[in-house]
Design a protein that fits this description.
Distance between the termini: 72 Å
Largest sheet: 2 strands, parallel
Helix content: 55-70%
Strand content: under 5%
Structural class: mainly alpha
Radius of gyration: 38 Å
Length: 286
């Protein structure tokens, strides 16, 4: 990073864009500035590229073997056994890029696919932060899911800024892989963040209800009396008592046919229905 900043500060931009070194007799700018030999930066670049290539080769083979074992993608079963077959398949894919013969053709493809991987990684981190999963415990205390979401948006913008006609196929391939894994259903269940969002919303709603003050229902129970002014279904009062719990108001009422003025005694007798002395009510068992 410091070398790039220093070169950009002390060298003209037109000279830096001369990638074949035609202005300096076929030598790159960094080689012309190096000491004691112009081959020193070339050797360092070769060693750095070789180390990064070996690391990518080992990591890609492990990832390919894991996908083949989990059957998340339609890959040959031989890739999930041992280390030789996935390593050979990864080397063959890398060789296809080398056979293109031009780093100008390989660089945008590698950049777009690397940004696609980081885009999916940032989206996964943002999803875990939104879901507050028990197993999600970032080491950075200042982490917030909005940072991962902003990183995903930045990766998407860089993909289209680098090469938009490579970005669209890369996003299409990532979408197809996700759709296949979702529809096919791998034997190894890893869980899915999008299906956990409704469950997390329901859990948050239940927690919000628990924080509210207890409700006090106001119940109206309509009873039916027989000819002897006895309740035909006393279980309704028991159910109302259980619904009311420790609070609220329960009003029990009935309808008596006839004239109120002529049936005053009957009305008074009906008002005493359900008392503890005459008609004790047992609790309802659900």
């Amino acid at each position: 990073m410091s070398a790039a900043l220093l070169l950009g500060a002390c060298v003209e931009g037109q000279l830096l864009r001369d990638k074949f070194g035609s202005s300096l007799r076929g030598r790159p700018v960094l080689a012309a500035l190096s000491w004691p030999s112009p081959w020193l930066p070339l050797a360092g670049a070769l060693l750095a590229a070789g180390g990064a290539g070996l690391q990518a080769l080992a990591g890609g083979s492990r990832l390919l073997r894991g996908l083949a074992r989990a059957r998340a993608l339609p890959l040959p079963p031989a890739l999930g056994r041992g280390e030789l077959w996935p390593l050979a398949a990864t080397a063959a894919v890398a060789e296809l890029g080398v056979l293109l013969g031009s780093i100008d053709l390989v660089a945008p493809v590698l950049s777009v696919f690397s940004l696609t991987a980081y885009l999916c990684l940032n989206l996964a981190c943002a999803m875990q932060g939104l879901l507050t999963a028990p197993g999600w415990n970032p080491r950075c205390r200042l982490y917030h899911w909005a940072v991962s979401l902003a990183g995903a948006g930045l990766c998407l913008a860089l993909m289209f800024a680098t090469c938009w006609f490579y970005a669209l196929p890369a996003l299409g391939m990532a979408g197809m892989a996700y759709t296949y894994a979702d529809l096919q259903g791998a034997p190894s269940e890893w869980g899915e963040g999008f299906r956990s969002l409704p469950l997390s919303a329901a859990l948050a709603a239940l927690r919000h209800l628990e924080q509210r003050p207890p409700r006090r229902p106001q119940l109206l129970v309509l009873l039916k009396l027989d000819a002897e002014l006895r309740v035909t279904q006393p279980q309704l009062l028991a159910l109302a008592a259980q619904l009311r719990a420790a609070g609220g108001l329960t009003v029990a009422a009935t309808v008596l046919p006839g004239d109120v003025l002529q049936a005053r005694e009957r009305v008074r007798a009906a008002e005493q229905v359900g008392g503890p002395q005459k008609n004790p009510i047992n609790p309802l068992k659900l």
